[in-house]
Amino acid sequence: SQSEQQILSSKLECVQSILDGVLAEAKCTESNLVTLLSQKGSGAKTQTQSSLKLLQVETDMLYKNVDSEDLYVTSMLYEREETERAVTGGEVSDLVWKLCLAHSASFETADLFMTLVFELRRLSLEALKALWQRSSFKCRDNWEPLIDALPSCATEACVVLMKEIIASGEVEEDKVEYFFWSFAFIPKPTLGMIKSLATLLKSPGTSQSCFLGVTALLHRFCSAHYSCDGLPAVQSVMRTLGKFLGGNCTVQDSEQFRKMQLVLKAIGNAGLAAASLTPILSSCASLQNNPIEIRLAAIQAFRRIPCSVRVSDLLPASD
């Protein structure tokens, strides 16, 4: 008998039939009894019956033969079947409108956003600029689909457009930071991207995310291109960073101190491209009048410079 204090009583009974070591049939009955404490003898009872029966056993599974030429290894990230159909700026603009009208937490919105990213990749810089003029608006909930999609585009045209948007000051600071951090994740940077972004490092008040995002992109580019430090666009970035160092990283006040630490970290980020700055970095590390934090930052800036530069010969002897 059940206790008078119990509110819910449940019971599940199953009967299974085994034939030749295989489950042939299963029948289950589930009962639930709900009683009310305040009204003795009152309540509700439910009973559910389910049945599972084996209908057929197949010993062999048939697989469709696939031509090995149709198989390839690729990343699953952002993969979508390419089509030959040309995409127009007007079509992409309509897509942005659809995103604004779609429910923000729906599968439709996710699919539309993914489509937007892929179609942005197929637009030229001129088409992207025209699209920006038409579709750089906020939805009713202040969402800006185009702003959020551009960092995932990862084409040279999209990067150049983002650079121009940043330079124009048309978007909020948090979106600018979002743009900068996205540069570090571009899988295949181009020389055109570096050439375009190099000018941002010369702007007054350049942020930490700008220095680190651009130099991370530079490192990824140089990892895929031998002797990248001889390319004019790469040299332009490194000359800009080198000017911040002066001859030996001396600083006069706390603001210069913070900026010097940031630039040294950015140079370390650049890695292979920073080989030309090793003599200056060595001077920064060896100058005893420099703050210890600056000297250590200069040493850490060597972390991605290849051994062929003979880092050990450039570092100072111990005091």
Automatic annotation (TrEMBL):
GO terms for molecular function: lipid transporter activity. Residues 1-319 form the Vitellogenin domain. It comes from the Eukaryota. InterPro entries: Lipovitellin_superhlx_dom, Vitellogenin_N. PROSITE patterns: VITELLOGENIN. This is VIT protein. The lineage of its organism: Eukaryota, Metazoa, Chordata, Craniata, Vertebrata. The gene is Vit_1.
